[in-house]
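Ticket #4471: structure output looks truncated?

Reporter: J.K.
Steps to reproduce: submitted the chain below (242 residues) through the standard prediction queue, then opened the result file.
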Amino acid sequence: MIIFPAIDIRGGRCVRLTEGRFDQETVFADNPAEMAEKWTKAGAEYLHVVDLDGALAGASRNLEAIKNILTVAKMPIQVGGGIRTLDNVEQLLSLGVARVILGSVAVKNPVLVQEACARFPGQVVVGIDAKNGEVAVEGWGVSGGMQAVELAKRMAQAGVEHIVFTDIARDGKLSGVNVEATAHIAMSSGIKIIASGGVSSLGDITALKKYEDLGIEGCIIGKAIYTGAIDLADALNIAREK
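Returned output as attached by the reporter:
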């Protein structure tokens, strides 16, 4: 199972939000590349980067910070946040980003997702953010009018191979990952799922790993590794156990 250390960028700085709320922000580093270097040295094998300004603007806004991360990170990175056009997808991939994450556009323009998957096979991830099972879009501020499981099934038909599933009611609260909902989406859609939101202990990673053979590909860890609640090296050891 892959552990994805999270780097959320707002105003060029590395921050963490609680429940996706921009009025509940904690700054952990002025330079996101420094955090990328730290997680690289700790042994991470894949980074999860979110352009929070881009999520609000509907287009990438922290390209310089992303370029700097790519310079120091000795591993692939996946990037999300406001990516809503094929040109934006191509722009990020041309920089050296391994995978791009499409969020709101998956609800509003599924045809674009299908086109992106056909054009960039294996490099398109869909981010499904949900609260109480219902999809949220546009920086988590608007209801998508659809259940997360239904959207995952539609994305499977569109050719999507990976989904990041975030339970936003738990995100940034260190309240424990929603293992049951994550596993349900994996088994219902047949797509590889990356769990996100609320990871607070090594027990969460152990619980998710039980479903690895059923489709849980990995786990994004944000606040827990920034506050020290989880040691990244310990998390990686559990994830790599056979």
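Triage note (M.O.): checked the attachment and the full token line is present. The chain is about 40% helix and 30% strand.
Status: closed, working as intended.
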